[in-house]
Each structure stands twice: as C-alpha cells, then as structure tokens.
Amino acid sequence: MPPRLLRHQGLHHDHAHDDAPDHRHNHVHGSANRLSGAFFLTALFLVAELATGLVTNSLALVSDAFHMLSDTLALGLGALAARVSLRRPTAEKTYGFKRFEVLAAFTNALLLAVFGVAIAFKAAQRLWMPQEVHAEPMLAVAAFGLLLNLGIFLWLHRGAKREGGHGLNEEGVLWHVAGDALGSIAAIAAGVVMVTTGWMRADAVAGLATASVLLFGSQRVLRLSAHILVEGTPPGVDGAAVRALVEGFPGVRSVHDFHLWSLSGRDLYLSAHLDLVEGEEASIVTSALRGALKARFGAIHVTLQTGPCGPGDCGNDCR
User: Fold this and answer.
1) Residues 6+ apart with CB under 8 A from 21
2) C-alpha closest to that of 188 among 213, 171, 212, 205
3) How many Å is the Cα radius of gyration of the chain?
4) What gap in Å lies between CA 247 and CA 289, rounded to an integer?
C-alpha cells in the first residue's frame, strides 16, 4: 500500500507515513509478553536468592539478589511500558504513548547505576574487613541463578531478533539480565575460591565485578535514552547525510527549520520547510523527495512544508 499524502490549500504540507504500525504493534506486543513472563520468573528466584544470601552471609549472593531485584523491577517496568506504548493517540497525546518505552529504559538505567554504586561501596568495605561466608549453599543458588538468567536472556534476545531487533526498552532490560548472569558467574567463581582456598575476600571481588557490569550497562542506556528524550537524531542515523539529501534534491533551493528525531528509538521522524526553485510544482518535488528519503534511509515519517519562508514560519533556522 503506498504511503498516504495529505495536501492542503496554500502552503503545501506533505506527510509521508509508512505502513509499519502493524509490524511495530506485533513487535511491541511480543516484547510485552516476553517481559511479563520473565518478570514472574525472576520475582520467584529473587526471594530464594536473597534469603540464601542472608543466611550464608554472602555479599556476592546478596549483591546478585539486589541486582535480581533491579531485574525484577526492570522487567515489570519494561512490560508495563511496552503495553502502555501500544495505546492509541489521544487529543492530548497526539504522538501516542511510544515514548513510555524510552522513559522506562531511562529509569531502568538509573536503577542499574544506583545498585552498581551501592554494591561497589559494600564490596570495598568487605575487601578491607573480610567476613566469613558459607560458600556451599551460595554455590548452589548462584548456579541455578546463572541458568535462569541465561535462559531469560536468550528468550528475550531471540524473540526480539525474530521480530526485527529489540528497542531501547528491551535493551535496557537485557543489560539488567546480562549483568545478573555475569554476577552469578562471579558468585560461583568466588564460591569455588572460598571452598578451595578459604580466601574470603573473593566474595568482595565478585561484588566489585558485578558492580562494574552494572555501571557499564547503565551509562550506555542512560546516554541513548537521554539522547532520544531531548529529541536528538536517533542513533545509527546520519543526520548530516539526511539533510544533505534534502538540500541537494532537484528543485530545492534551500531548507529551513530542519528537524530529525525519534519517539521510541525504533522510528524516525523528519520535518522541514523547503524553499523551492521558482516554477517547481510542490507536490511533484515533495513526492519525489519522500521516495528518495525512504529508499535511502528506510522507514521514515516525513512532514514537508513549502512556500515562502518568513520569520514566523521557520523559527531560528530562517535566513
């Protein structure tokens, strides 16, 4: 089905929208189902791991349990955000609710950072003053946690891959799960060292390793989600190349009020005011430009305005 065009009298506005909403709806709906299932599994294991960590006095296990708590919150928030993002636009929210996924990713990244700092602080204390840890039950729970996290990670990742790749919301959750899997590995390694050598500081070292993973994942998701929230050019899109194509297109004399942004990280929006060469037909130029943009950059929502550019029309970009 060809993209729809809306034309108005006077200044020409060309709105091009791809027919990707159905695909996006299926993708986000599948993501919400996967995240909901993973939420219930991690919540059940969280209780068992935290209880074992407290009984055995294992910082590695308790820190992994707190990361599992952040996983549980991340999965629940991610699932909720994915479902909310499917709601239709309203008169008050004309873009719909897609950005809720980015807000969830930002919140989850903040949780990662907070837990990472807290675990690193506690681990540093344990390095200075090591404590006795009951390593055997710690090993058993950490091994089960590793299997659970690996299973959830593969389930989420493969499901998203089948549907065209995961969005920022799901990526934020995957960092939580991946970090927890590595935390379980660190806890297992610490348990083995403590059982075989009696070196109790291995527990603190494992906690520091887990904290490092959390902080690494948090900065990446924070940076990407904040970039989208402030209307930055979506990651992976060459904004200069998009503008160069528009400015150099036959029939276009100059471009003003050029904007390129994303709502969820999966979509791409472009709006611009075009000053056309005298005698050019606006509908012909904008239709051809829309086709060129789609051919070069894929799914893109385009809004083009043509006509004389006055100070009230083109914002600060008008010359």
Assistant:
1) none
2) 205
3) 25
4) 10
Higher-scoring residue by pLDDT: 131, 119 = 119
Report d(CA 313, CA 33) in Å as an integer.
44
Given CATH 1.20.1510.10, say whether it is the number of domain 22-229.
Answer: yes
Which part of the chain is CATH 1.20.1510.10?
22-229
- Band the pLDDT of 64: cuts 50, 70, 90: low
Using one digit for the tens of pLDDT, what is the confidence trace for 279-302? 889 999 999 999 999 998 887 889
Q: Which residues contact 180 (CB under 8 A, 6 or more apart)?
A: 64, 67, 68, 71, 145, 149
In the predicted model, is pLDDT for residue 4 greater than 50? no
DSSP 316: G
Rounded CA-CA distance 9/84 in Å is 36
Helix ranges restricted to H, the chain: 21-56, 59-85, 100-128, 135-162, 168-197, 201-229, 239-247, 282-297
Helices 135-162 and 59-85 sit at what angle, rounded to 10 degrees? 20
CB 88 within 8 A of CB 107: no
Domain boundaries for CATH 3.30.70.1350 within the chain = 235-317
**In a 3-state reduction of DSSP, which class is residue 252?**
strand
| Helix (H), strand (E) at residue 16 | strand 12-16
Q: For the domain 235-317, what is the CATH superfamily, name and number?
A: Cation efflux protein, cytoplasmic domain (3.30.70.1350)
pTM, to two decimals:
0.68
**Interior CA angle at 317 toward 314 and 319, to 5°?**
90
pLDDT for res 200? 81
Dihedral of the CA atoms 247, 306, 280, 296 (nearest 10)?
40
